[in-house]
User: Fold this.
Amino acid sequence: GYKKGFLKKQWRQQVQAFRTMAENKLCWYEKGKGFPGMAWARKRELDWNDLANLPNDDDLAADPRVRAAKELFDYSVGIPIVDRTTGHVRGVVMLYHVTELPD
Assistant:
């Protein structure tokens, strides 16, 4: 097991690699692509995904960023930031949850 508040070194490195991939300008999301793109396209208050039960054969699972998130996290939530005047999405806040750290 692990102690609360303690991240295993390997998991921390995987999360850092995920973060680097997400920040890469060559990997920015398009509307409808990846978790942020889906939240952007749907414009819901919350766009929730159960990563453990996400099928491996759809377009979403073909995205390498989605595959990386599935390996690290249990759930994702996308919150689109919508401009009240224009209705345009200005950004998407992504939150990820892990129930138990891998051994």
User: Anything to note?
Assistant: The longest helix spans residues 9-23. DSSP finds three helices and three strands in the chain.
